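cron nightly-structures :: item 1 of 1
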Amino acid sequence: MTKSEVRKFIKTKQAEIFKDSNYRIHESYKTCQKISVTEEFKRSSYIFAFMPLNDEVNIGGLIVEAFLQNKKVAVPKITGDGIMEFHWVSVDSKLDSGAFGIYEPAAVSLSETRVNMETMHFVKTNSLLLVPGMAYSIAGKRLGRGKGFYDRFIKEYGKCFTKMGVCLPFQIAENQPELHDIPTDENDMSVDNIVF
C-alpha cells in the first residue's frame, strides 16, 4: 500500500472502531497508564507532549501526571508550513485552538515560553518526546498525517530525546492483516519505541 492508501485504510478502521463511543476513552486511559510506568517516562525531567486531535490518544491524564511529578512539560505550536516549535506550559497555561484545530499555547507570552532548542541541553536520558501518528510498525516506523511536522522536528532534534510513538492498538500495522508494513521514505523519521 502507498502512504495515502494506508491513511485511508486507518481512517476506515477508525470509523468502525469509534462507533463504540467509549473506545478512545478506555484505550487512552490504558495507554497513559502504560506510558507512566515506563522507565523513559519515570526518568525524564522534560516531557515534550502533544495536544491530541479527537482521533488520537488523549494524553491529558499523562500531562497531569507529569505536572504532579514536577516534570517540565512542553507542547507544540505550528509556526509555519511544516514547522513547529515547543513551548513550556503549566497547569494554568492558556491554550487556544490553533492550526488544524489543535490546542496550542496562546499568543500572550510566546517569546517567554518558547523552548530554545539551541541553548537547552536535552539528552535522551532525561527528555521524552511523545509522538502521535496515523500508523506505526512495531519496529518504530511511523506514518504521520503527511505534513511533516514531526519528521522535520525529529530530523533536527531527535538526538536530544527518547522518541516514543503513541497510538491506539488498531494503528499498529502488525495488528492489521491487510498492512504488511508502513511505507516510508528518507524523509520519514522513526521512533525508539511505541506504546499503545
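cron nightly-structures :: done
The first helix runs from residue 3 to 17.
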